[in-house]
Design a protein that fits this description.
By secondary structure, the chain is of the alpha+beta class. The protein has helices at about 10-20, 25, 40-50, 70-80, 105-115, 135-155, 185-195, 200-220, 250-255, 265, 275-280; strands spanning about 35, 55-60, 65-70, 95-100, 115-120, 125-130, 170-175, 225-230, 235-245, 285-290, 295-305.
Length: about 300
Amino acid sequence: MVSIPVNTDSSSDAVLDLLFQLKVKDVMTAPVITVPPEITMREIQCLMKTKNITGVLVLRDAKLEGIVSMDDIINAFDGGWIDEAAELHMTKDLIVLIDSMPLTFCVSSFNKYHFGRFPVLNSDNELCGIVTTTDVIAALLTAMNKVVEKMEKDKNQQEPKENTVAAERIIEFRTESFNFDTAGKASTEIKKIMKNMGVPAALTRRIGIASYELEINQVVHSQGGVMRYYIRPDRLIIEAQDFGPGIPDIAKVLIEGYSTADDRIRALGFGAGMGLPNTKRVSDEFNIVSEVDKGTVVHAVFNLKEESV
């Protein structure tokens, strides 16, 4: 399992930022070792031993059809089918990741499904890599070393803070359906602005969570939308407006675990039903209005002058 630190020191904030900034393609292993479906489980076991790997993807005519893990090999020995074809005993119901997804999705998928690895597809639904928990940890350690070096270099340079805001500022970001290349950009920028204003770290973290959940909801569940941030000296209003399909029953989507996600979205590891409940939980004020086939508008409000707990 890959866990995300939740304490409030600067190193933990740096790890969280990395999880949003890094993409799956930054940590995945490529090219991928693959096998055809007619190969035997014994041949796969020998391949795993030779290549020092614990999982192999099964492809037919360049199309991903399944995966064989070390558990599958052990079961094949125990069950007496070690010399049978992989296609008869491979795992076929796969959860895949998209290479442009933020690394936070990868970590969430490992924690949710407890798999040892996930296939990675590109925007054309072609296999382009595989990612394991070891890949994630190694990449985070490398990136964290660079962050620590920068923190050491900058520790005596105090970043100027915007202690006052003369008037309301409005910042706007556009989102696009299933465009993970820019997903998370708005949330990263608003956290930087909050830090420069001197907003407490715990409150900034709550703002980051709400912003990110709303932003990703637009990317995954709508046809895209707009993230607007109304910034005042004492108040931040996040307005997330998306375009379709709307929410038939608002009360239900605010229940943890309830989701309207279709099979495609669930196959990508989404649809846990926690986005809007999480946003409501961390907000000081929360409101949602939706119309079927037209879209949804969510407001999450934060009092910037009150210390977060």
